[in-house]
Input
Amino acid sequence: MARYVGAIDQGTTSTRFIVFNRGGQVVAIAQKEHEQIYPNPGWVEHNPEEIWRCTREVIAEATGRGNIRPADLAAVGITNQRETTVVWNRQTGKPVANALVWQDTRVADYVAELAKPGGQDRFRGKTGLPLSTYFSGLKIRWILEHVKGARAMAEAGDLLFGNIDTFLVWQLTGGPNHGIHITDVTNASRTQLMDLATLSWDRDILDAFGIPEAMLPRIRSSSEVYAQAKVPELKGVAIAGILGDQQAALVGQTCFRPGEAKNTYGTGCFLLMNTGERVFHSNCGLLTTLAYKLGDQPAHYALEGSIAITGALVQWVRDNLGLIQNSSEIETLARSVADNGGVYFVPAFSGLYAPYWKDNARGVIAGLTRYANKGHLARAVLEATAFQTLDVVEAMQKDANIKLDVLRTDGGMVENELLMQFQADILNLAVVRPVTRDATTALGSAYAAGLAVGYFTDLDDLRSNWAVDRTWKPKLSEAHRQQMCRLWRRAVSKSFDWVG
Output
């Protein structure tokens, strides 16, 4: 009998393969970074072939370290950076261009063009999403219009589109030799091409975007046996779960009841609240998205607040300014001062996402005086993540008319205890870090795969694995909190309409 369940966690900066036991504990792990490609300001690309190569390497490395054979794995799930767009030739498997990453802003002109007839919310009723550079649909259009011969090939049925999940499943199950072309409802909901009610591609939107339906993968649930892997590293193992990374974190945090919410602190920050089988259409700048669909059970939905730049800001301070050598040093530098010294950092490097949706915003550092030093800047960098999360939490509570009493957190930045305390302070509510926090997205996809094959029995089986590592409670006075919030919002307003 298979002892473990595995997960491919393909993220914005790296790919991991993680093997879990029934208790949700990590048995083996391997990770490999891939190149970030910046051809022009605002453009962000990845090489899909490099990602596929890294995926195979981390699977081999993790299973080798754990002495784990394919027969030891009950199933494998996939979780992935969402919206990142790959278009490839179905005959050769070769991408026609680099993947356009979710942060990429090159389609801003398309956003403006499509918003003219009906505004930025023209497609929100069907898709839950505003027109934005964020989502996959307009990235597909850009590739079809800017890669020589791509549109003709697509219309002839020779090109396939997928987010990273689709590309990896196709490769794992045979590639040009009968690989399956599928996605799950969570990833499909991030293309801006899927109707939330019918869970199918919307032909009117496809026509408006100029995208041939033949390019698109078949939409499946998040937890079912799709096929067996054909690559040697996973030969014969069931591929049985797919979840976009933030939905995977929601499942990994076992937020299965309406009103339960989690925030993932990674390259960006993504706060999701489960709204059950009900679709909430946001009036406060949030996204309505699929939370998950387990087998033939009804789909569950979520409200989401997406923040583009959080952990990426720490990387920018490290790589572009050279203020720190390693990302972990940001906390030590921030602790060298007692407060932010009046400095506020709005990291609108790719515009502002929720709840503002300002594609033409750009980064701003406000409140500088001769007193300010690099410690104050480091503190402002960390506080920017907490302030952006505050904006999203307040919008979410208004939309859903639900008051959060606790925020579950996960992701790489939750190791930063200064950030976690300030997050509790500025939200004025408890912030909880679980025992499993840096592998939560992978765990969610492993749960989905394990449920599909009976490795896990039911949702209560998963809930029993969740455990608290630490809780932070607010310590900031209300007067001080309100003053900081006012200054933050003033700084945010200064970032608006910078471009154009």
The chain has a mean pLDDT of 94.
